[in-house]
Amino acid sequence: MSNIMDKNKLQALANELAKDVKTPEDLSTLSAFLTKLTVEAALKAEMDYHLGYDKNDTSGHHSGNSRNGFSSKKLKGDHGEIEIQTPRDRNANFEPELIKKGQTRTASMDKQILSLYAKGMSTRDITEAFQEMYGADISAGLISQVTNGVMEKVTEWQNRPLDAIYPIVYLDCIVLKIRQDKRVINKAIYLVLGINIEGHKELLGMWISENEGAKFWLSVLTDLQNRGMKHMFIACVDGLKGFPDAINATFPDTKIQLCIVHMV
């Protein structure tokens, strides 16, 4: 019943607010204002939890810590740019989780930057897109910071240590169209999927090249070795010429099985 009442109240509030929305700019302004109210309310709730008592609650007397006003910060996101008031405590050890200290943009903004970057847009194009869509000014340096942060995680994942034994390993290559330097070109994506000794599937890595070839597969297999793989009992592959030789050169005890799709 309470959920229905909450929905009814929210619907009534939305209906009332909608009366003053006449243009897309009005809607954007309303969205930013509601975001500000919601974020600030959530931060205040985090402060209540951090201190262990509500504002003006007498149980907080002589507790050793108390509220100490607010500090202003600008927050960028898909709502544009808003100024929020972040609560402070006297001991200065309040660490909000929703909007962390030093954070000046929302997670959704980072996702949008990465999405546009993945589609081949330049840093300048992304900067102009955010200004046009949200009226938010973001620098090329910020975009590079976001994308570089992700690339560091990708590199860490690509170089992570592997198990010594994988009973079954599937090796295949697919060709995808990729936007590069404002052109759409074909790239070969090398994929290695391993079945570990617990029977779970694990994507061991992805590599990119201009086309598929046994020579590049040899470099992929060497990389697997360098990351700790000692044995693969069965390698399931396609019929690429020279592929079995590359496998035997790095994992000589491996049994090679032509995958069922390529056998048909």
Question: What can you see in these coordinates?
Answer:
Required for the transposition of the insertion element. Belongs to the transposase mutator family. One of its GO terms (biological process) is DNA transposition. The structure is a single chain. By secondary structure, this protein is α/β, with parallel strands linked by helices. It has helices at 2-18, 24-51, 107-118, 123-134, 140-158, 214-226, 243-250, 260-263; strands at residues 67-77, 80-89, 165-180, 183-195, 201-209, 231-237, 255-258. The strands form 2 sheets. Strands 5-4-3-6-7 form a 5-stranded mixed beta sheet. A two-stranded antiparallel ribbon has the order 1-2. The longest helix has 28 residues, at 24-51. The model has no long low-confidence stretch (mean pLDDT 80).
What's the gist of this structure?
The protein has 264 residues and is α/β, with parallel strands linked by helices. It has helices at residues 2-18, 24-51, 107-118, 123-134, 140-158, 214-226, 243-250, 260-263; strands at residues 67-77, 80-89, 165-180, 183-195, 201-209, 231-237, 255-258. Helix 7 links the parallel strand 6 and strand 7.
How far apart the termini lie comes to 59 Å
Spatial strand arrangement across the major sheet: 5-4-3-6-7
Task: Calculate Rg over CA atoms.
Answer: 27 Å
Question: Helical region count?
Answer: 8
Query: Helical residue percent?
Result: 40-55%
Number of strand elements: 7
General form: elongated
Order of helices and strands: HHEEHHHEEEHEHEH
Mean pLDDT, all residues? 80
Domains, number: 3
Biggest β-sheet strands, sense, barrel:
5 strands, mixed
Question: Structural class per helix/strand content?
Answer: alpha/beta
Strand percent estimate: 25-35%
Weakly predicted, low-confidence segments? none
